[in-house]
Amino acid sequence: MTEDRDALAAQLDKEHVFHSWSAQAALAPLVVAGGLGTRVWDHSGRTYLDFSSQLVNVNIGHQHPRVVAAIQEQAATLATIGPATANLTRGEAAKRIAARAPAGMDKVFFTNGGADANENAIRMARLHTGRDKVVSTYRSYHGNTGAAIVSTGDWRRLPNEYARGHVHVFGPYLYRSEFWATTPEEECERALQHLRRVVECEGPQSVAAILLETVPGTAGIMVPPPGYLAGVRALADEHGIVLILDEVMAGFGRTGEWFALDAHDVVPDLIVFAKGVNSGYVPVGGVVLSNAIAATFDDRVFPGGLTYSGHPLAAASIVASIDAMAEEGIVDNARKIGTDVLGPGLAELAEKHPVIGEARGVGVFWALELVADRATRAPVAPAVMGRAKAELVSRGVIPFIADNRIHVVPPCVVTADEVAEALAAYDAVLTLLDEEL
Ligand code: PLP
């Protein structure tokens, strides 16, 4: 009977669900029926450690009882209300988000997710400055809508009619340095020089915004070297450019901080958030505005908004999620696990397995970059990554695979025992991959 439900889920998915980012024919996605904390399971009771946090969004873990209860309670009270109303729960949610942002960033604009939050941040920057261009990095992901996808470096090869005014630069990435750097200091200095030259060549008076992921996630989890973001801030200040930090993936605990920017001595003008703010229990995202940019719109209309902006179910889930994360020390747990258990464990794997070119990250935000040859750093073939995924799933671990990397990104509530269990599976699979070299 339960086996039948797994089969039925697979059949209905095959017949009626058109999946994102995929060729449809060969798809056979994992059936997931339930979850709790770091684990999910199918109808037959096969359980998996979710070391993907789905799309790196379930920071608080699956089915946190307090967040589930808050959504249920809100649904029973007021299941929907338009954005042009004052609602206590929405106000409480905005207050909690602003409280985690740097001082002087008091207002929150709500959207339905991360991509539309970036769209609106870019629009705010353009209206605030009266300029057009947006500088972002080649290795980045900002979402799959108009301006967000063209600011996304990795996807700029797609044809897109919205490409007006988007300029790309190389960000710091020491392992594959574009600047022939051999130390983090060199990489930082040269990446800043390169950015400065591009801004100068584009004409600083035409640049509305520099848009960066605080820690680029999907493109490879490259923690910026100390001083890089502060250097970008200084350059932006010199030319009146708006600095937008995209914290959609890095924010709300993932790096062991409320916002990843907290570890980088930088105050942006706009912070873009989504994912971890409520772990995706209800779709939501948004922009935290500096008071200066918010004031731009005191006497003029901000032409942006969506029917479901600031939806009460999303707001209730944000309030409960932030409160639970604070009271249960979930952000601290992410930091400690990263420093004491996950980081050292992955470093050990990197020592042992020639297929790992580099293990890098922070908190519960790590990447294992797999290479066919450590000397040349040539990435492994896509088929190797396909095998890695299948072997990990067969050992009960859901991985997040991107290009030639395994991203090790469990929920922030992960325990040391769960990390040990997953590391044993990675170890076994990496041994198989070593043999293919
Ligand atoms: N920005 C970053 C840094 C992301 O990682 C993502 C999604 O992975 C987005 C924006 C887009 O968010 P969404 O998929 O909610 O539109």
Give a quick precis of the structure:
This protein is an alpha/beta fold and 437 residues long. The chain has helices at 2-16, 53-56, 65-77, 88-100, 114-129, 146-151, 184-202, 228-239, 291-296, 312-327, 330-352, 382-394, 416-436, and strands at 34-36, 39-41, 47-50, 107-111, 133-137, 166-169, 207-213, 242-246, 270-273, 285-289, 356-362, 365-373, 378-379, 397-398, 400-402, 405-408. A hairpin with a 5-residue loop joins strand 2 and strand 3.
Cα-to-Cα separation, first versus last residue: 43 Å
- Largest sheet at a glance? 7 strands, mixed
The small-molecule ligands in this entry are:
pyridoxal-5'-phosphate
Using only C-alpha atoms, the radius of gyration works out to 22 Å
- The neighbouring-strand order within the major sheet is 4-10-9-8-7-5-6
Proportion of β residues? 15-25%
The stretches of 5 or more residues where confidence is low (pLDDT under 50) are none
Whole-number average pLDDT? 95
Number of helices: 13
Apparent shape:
globular
**Total DSSP E strands:** 16
Structural class designation: alpha/beta
Series of H and E elements: HEEEHHHEHEHEHEHEEEHHHEEEHEEEH
What does this structure look like?
This protein has 437 residues and is of the alpha/beta class. Helices cover 41% and strands 16% of the residues. Helix 3 runs antiparallel to helix 10 and helix 11 runs parallel beside helix 13. The longest helix is centred in the last third of the chain and has 23 residues. Pyridoxal-5'-phosphate binds next to helix 5. Its EC number is 2.6.1.55. Belongs to the class-III pyridoxal-phosphate-dependent aminotransferase family.
